[in-house]
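Hello again,

I reread your note about wanting to compare the complex against the isolated chains. To keep things tidy I'm splitting this into two emails, and this first one only covers the full assembly. Below are the input lines as submitted, including protein chains and any nucleic acid or small-molecule components. They are followed by the predicted structure of everything together. The single-chain runs will come separately.
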Amino acid sequence: MSKIDRIFCAGFGGQGVMSMGQLLAYAAMLEEKEVTWCPSYGPEMRGGEANCSVTISDERIGSPLINNDASVGVFMNGAAYNKFIGKVMPGGKVFINSDLIDAENPRTDITYYRIPVNSIATELGKIQLANMVMLGAVNDQAHLVDQDMLLEAFKKVFGAAKEKFIPINKEALAKGAEAAAKMF
Amino acid sequence: MSKIDRIFCAGFGGQGVMSMGQLLAYAAMLEEKEVTWCPSYGPEMRGGEANCSVTISDERIGSPLINNDASVGVFMNGAAYNKFIGKVMPGGKVFINSDLIDAENPRTDITYYRIPVNSIATELGKIQLANMVMLGAVNDQAHLVDQDMLLEAFKKVFGAAKEKFIPINKEALAKGAEAAAKMF
Amino acid sequence: MAKVLLKGNEAVVRAAIEAGCKYFFGYPITPQNEIPEYFSKELPKIGGAFVQGESEVASINMLYGAAAAGARAMTSSSSPGIALMQEGIGYISKAEVPAVIVNMMRGGPGLGGIQPSQADYNMCVKGGSNGDYRTVVLAPGNVQELVDMVQEAFDIADQYRILCIVLADGLIGQMMEPVELRKPKERPIPAKDWALTGRNGGKTHRVYNLKLQAPDLEKDNFDLFKKYAVIEENETRYEDYMMEDAEFAFASYGTASRVVRTAVDRLREEGYKVGLVRPQTLWPFPYEAFNRPQIKKYMDIELNMGQMVDDVVLGCGDKEKVEFFGHTGGVLITVDEVCDFAKKIMGGAK
Amino acid sequence: MAKVLLKGNEAVVRAAIEAGCKYFFGYPITPQNEIPEYFSKELPKIGGAFVQGESEVASINMLYGAAAAGARAMTSSSSPGIALMQEGIGYISKAEVPAVIVNMMRGGPGLGGIQPSQADYNMCVKGGSNGDYRTVVLAPGNVQELVDMVQEAFDIADQYRILCIVLADGLIGQMMEPVELRKPKERPIPAKDWALTGRNGGKTHRVYNLKLQAPDLEKDNFDLFKKYAVIEENETRYEDYMMEDAEFAFASYGTASRVVRTAVDRLREEGYKVGLVRPQTLWPFPYEAFNRPQIKKYMDIELNMGQMVDDVVLGCGDKEKVEFFGHTGGVLITVDEVCDFAKKIMGGAK
Amino acid sequence: MGSFTLSIREERCKGCELCVSVCPKGVLAINKDKPNAAGYFPASVVAQDECVGCQSCVRMCPDVAIKIEKKD
Amino acid sequence: MGSFTLSIREERCKGCELCVSVCPKGVLAINKDKPNAAGYFPASVVAQDECVGCQSCVRMCPDVAIKIEKKD
Amino acid sequence: MSVVFERSKGLTDVKTHYCPGCSHGIVHRLLAESVEEMGKLEDTICISPVGCAVLALDYFEFDGIQAAHGRAPATATGIKRVHPDKTVITYQGDGDLASIGMCEIVHAAARGEKITTIFINNGIYGMTGGQMAPTTLPGMKATTAQLGREVSLNGYPIRVAELIATLDGAKYVERVAVDSPADVIKAKAAIKKALEVQEAGLGFSFVEVLCACPTNWGKTPVDALKFVKDEMIPYYPLGVKKDTTKEGQ
Amino acid sequence: MSVVFERSKGLTDVKTHYCPGCSHGIVHRLLAESVEEMGKLEDTICISPVGCAVLALDYFEFDGIQAAHGRAPATATGIKRVHPDKTVITYQGDGDLASIGMCEIVHAAARGEKITTIFINNGIYGMTGGQMAPTTLPGMKATTAQLGREVSLNGYPIRVAELIATLDGAKYVERVAVDSPADVIKAKAAIKKALEVQEAGLGFSFVEVLCACPTNWGKTPVDALKFVKDEMIPYYPLGVKKDTTKEGQ
Ligand SMILES: Cc1ncc(C[n+]2csc(CCOP(=O)(O)OP(=O)(O)O)c2C)c(N)n1
Ligand SMILES: Cc1ncc(C[n+]2csc(CCOP(=O)(O)OP(=O)(O)O)c2C)c(N)n1
Ligand code: SF4
Ligand code: SF4
Ligand code: SF4
Ligand code: SF4
Ligand code: SF4
Ligand code: SF4
Ligand SMILES: [Mg+2]
Ligand SMILES: [Mg+2]
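Full-complex prediction:
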């Protein structure tokens, strides 16, 4: 069977969870992989939880949904972690925003990456970069796409107007990768 | 097979064609026969032709429609006669308002009754009685219901308010019957 | 009660009132205008209300309100008017408020024409609204049955908290037949403790249509379908005519089935072993009635392009066994046509 | 053209504009709001027009006008909104003006919920409006196919002068996938010499919906059904997956079919000889695709209570051969559930 | 002799009498003798010479059955 | 000491600040320290004694989270 | 001989299905003449309603379509957006426009849709046989108000022109009647003016025409027009309700 | 200690799903208090719309039903005819009432239906995420008018209270706002008065409430109410549009 990655990202509205998934999906597409990005569009009209499922594969993708078969779980806050940790399959990798998530009694069948993405982003001068820090960590450890491709994707998703932010985002990705690497 | 009468009445709006059929149907019902009365409700919003089909039977009635199997045809004006004479089955009886219908080249497979119902009604003092004159003729010759039952039906259909007209209607029925009988 | 000679549309009104219907909401449309007209005369006399809705959309939503308020209420219309009611039909079905609709069908699609038709089978039986739902569909074959079914429709609606459609072709509304208003069979009808009546010292009543959480909505739908299964079990109804020794069978309902009945008589006279299966409920559909191995062919006769065919095939399990003949757009079928068609199908078989 | 990552709803707009659609009429409803929103931004730029209809009823009748005027135009909505369009759908079908509707289905019945569903199969495929008519129904399985089908819908509509519905579940509208805007196959598209353009020195154009004389209406309907027969002949479409040696087959479309596809992969790994038949057109329905004697069971998987089941039975000719599994009300199915269900049906067979 | 000529297309006329009722000069009248093909008793010109060309009749005719010409 | 007692049901409060914005006496303020269970920073009473019982706050509170009592 | 009056070229030679004395015929003539006089026969599209005028498209020498009951303004909107340079007209009865179609007419007016609506107010549902319309006068009989409209039961008649005039997108609104030659002249002027407002691209224009339905009123045509004059006009005052053109200001 | 202000018994203790600062909550309170003060908690049936207030029935301590989008006045009519002695209220947004539901509200008013309508005009489709409503102000942004409403393209806003006031069956019509404590007091009085008009059996009563939708306006709650005051009130003048009660005459 071909390689297939299923990445589940969850957090609350405003943490950039949806665009994290979109950047990943876009980058994978640029690498000519098959890809799907599915939001959960909940009944909540505003705020509240946000999550998306990204599937990356060499072949045509069947189900774009993630039930309990995420190979990668990304959790930006505690509520999301508690609610959705079960979606990660045994052997999967889990990335948690350790600034907001304790994750006591962690599952033993998966690998944890605890990244203080809020702190790192704050250090970088903008808490809004937390999702990019996380993305850097995830991509570095889960080997999803070429790190540079994420910046290409950034251009496509956010357009010319936002290109000036590329350097700082690049740095965020790098910091995230660094932090994740340090863990092991 | 049980006895079944299919009576097709046609004329133009205002000639009392519909109520002729209804009286017949009502009377037959009072005699505990099965009966149906079907109007044609045409696209014409007003005026124009009027016709109805009455079926009287000892048994439950299947089709209430008359195609080419009317045992009795009643025609109050020329247009209706020309359009619908084909509905009468061979061996059937046809009653025509001879004041308004010439019926040249009559069909040879049916029996014609030419009743000057307009003239008779006018003699009776009310051209509106033409349909009752015709009804008298039809019922007398086609042996559909008891003649008195038609007057019972008249009471039911037109209500107490119109009961004072019973004598004159009775007379009209009688005159019609008489005229028809005279024909043979 | 003695018989009276009634026009189908007037009979609907008498039957409804007999069944305790005190509220009517409807919008004029040929060929059922006598229904609102009679109701407008009769309901005020009995302390009920007639409201001429500003449209069919308004009428169905008035019905939703009146029915949710616990009353026996109905609307009526004809084909394009019923199409406009589809959203409301879905709402009534979702909320499980018992209500009655009479559809006096005319030719379509679209504005179409005003002559009698049976072309709303798909819309009314298969479901013209969104989502998973069913409505009971009663198909009267004559005015007496129309009267009986209108009365029963109210009972069935109340017994199961379901929307009940009386689906008749325009001719049944226009024709007159002797009619007796008789009591329908007794049914267990639960109290409407869910109805909007004000709290009256008790709990608050709430009639929902929205379930934002998918699992809640799914549960509702599963419950609905459990109820539907009970209805299928209890309420499926059809009538056989000359079926004991039949080798060929017509499938037909409403006015078409009457023409067919006469055709059966005529064909029997000629020695053909032919009968008629007449569904009286279109949902639940009497699939079993068409599951008779001895029947060589089913001849489906409708006033449309063959909308019941699939159901007859599903019933008998063999599409090769089902043939269709019909007219559409308001043209009526004749006994001759039906006999000719049948003879072609039956060949020399007698 | 290079691929772009697009949300289904946005992709609809791009595809429609690519296909020459310059007019959109629609009313907000979740989960398809991005469609009117993108259209409102894009159409003025290309000299077209976006009108937010005051309702779905207005929107479908605006579409009727714009399409009768000869333009490529569309509307979109979701389940209860489509229910409100039923009368208009009948009018468009009767008048034979080519038009396109996108339905991003959500759970019903009634107001229901906003999560993805396939519960409008009956309404859209069997006919939610009055009278004898059909609409082409395309069922995309992913965003690329959504894009392709929206483009084709305009061509099919114009080729046959028919209403074309693109029937997708809400998830397809919400998810993103790489998409390429490619040209659909060339079709013979007749000139719209019947369209309302003003006389322009020629004859007067008239678009009718009423035929008061039943025989005229019948003739129209017969003509319609002749056309439908051609469409059934030419446009029926489905996709096989792993069907060459399959002994069991899933029947599924839209998002459900993707979950099923993954289930097929998994079951194949476990040695089960199972495949998937995915109807891409729901009308005309690919009955023949289910007529394979070697298949022991068809497993119909839908996001509803089993609305396609009858068609699969009609296709395979044996109701004993068809089993159903699904979720309703917006609950999605999982690969595990599908596999478990399939194994129960297939037993030990591998 | 009047200076206007009226012509009525009898086959279009439905005998509604509106023209008759508004003509100030009594130019028109319903012809109760012979119905037209559609069964209506049409209006006819009974006093042509009286016509003053005021056009009241044509303004009211729902069937646009009347034509007025002026003799030069 | 003021004669009114305000109590805010924090779990209902959504931190919209409408009460704060209309209070003429600065009695209320948003507590930026600790979000409530729903994640909102609720209003709190910071100058109880200043309250004049004008009810402006309760009139504007969309979540009807405030109660005012008067000390007898 | 010179022609003083003859049938407009905007009318086909098809005989209408209207009852004797029905006002629809008069208004058809006015509309056809207006379009002809404006030189727009080649460039006009008229939407027929569901109502007695459902066949109007057969009677005009310009393009036509039959809209769904009450939805003519929506259908007109679709057409006009596609052909902004054509004259688009809806011709609607009071059941069609004021009952089932109230939402569409209000919104077409509010949008300032550049179309013209001719509103035939005959106080009754003609085609379906005389049911109560939203414009049926108090006390007036209808088959669904057989003792006469009783406002406490059946509600109040709607003065549609006044209602439409409240909408900013409506640029010209007038009520006229066809009860007499003099009023017919004014009706014609109003219709033409409304079309000119459309031609000038100002926005929505609307002419309500008080009409007779002799058949369902159970009156002779002459008596029916007397009823228009004596009963309808007092309830529905004639005149310009709104005029945003230069002359109107 | 005596209570100066506390939660009305007309409100359940369920937390609302409304956004912070959403005006729906304020109007809910006013309605609940009015019904409570009139002693009608046992005898009231309120129809929730489709819109953000679709769940309103969960928030009131009286009977409730969710109507189809825009059809609350029709559903209310059905209920009121069955229970003429109950207080029947529709609570509707501007998409619900002024767009899709225009026909039903006009006709309920024209019929003089003895119901009360509370009309929440927040100039936007809240629930579906900020599309243009018939009441969106010129220049105001919406997701289907991203450069701001352009009247030549999107038509003109509708002043609903004024439109309803043209109808004879409407017996009490007022426009209020909830932008300030003073206006909230007036809003409460209007709602109560409208219910009293129903109670007295006079006919249809209608209160339009200018409200804020901070979320879709992209404003803080405080700024949103400032927008109501500075922008909405000038376009939609507050005040009684019609009052047929004795005091009103
Ligand atoms: C959806 C729908 N509802 C009802 C009808 C039936 N219908 C045909 S014409 C008409 C009313 C016509 O009245 P009006 O608009 O006043 O026109 P008039 O005939 O008086 O000119 C109605 C209700 C229909 N065809 N379609
Ligand atoms: C028939 C139908 N069309 C559309 C919708 C989608 N919808 C839900 S709420 C809404 C608009 C709500 O706006 P408004 O009435 O202004 O209420 P608000 O949310 O602003 O309070 C719409 C269009 C629906 N549920 N049903
Ligand atoms: S033009 Fe005037 S005077 Fe002449 S016939 Fe007509 S109405 Fe009479
Ligand atoms: S007005 Fe016209 S239709 Fe009427 S009677 Fe005169 S000519 Fe004939
Ligand atoms: S009652 Fe008045 S003074 Fe007291 S807290 Fe509320 S707004 Fe402030
Ligand atoms: S107004 Fe109410 S919800 Fe808003 S901050 Fe104050 S107490 Fe909290
Ligand atoms: S029914 Fe009335 S409106 Fe219709 S054609 Fe006859 S007179 Fe005219
Ligand atoms: S979206 Fe707007 S109207 Fe809806 S709850 Fe939020 S603020 Fe209120
Ligand atoms: Mg009318
Ligand atoms: Mg709103």
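For quick reference: The CA atoms of residues 178 and 324 of chain D lie 32 Å apart.

B.
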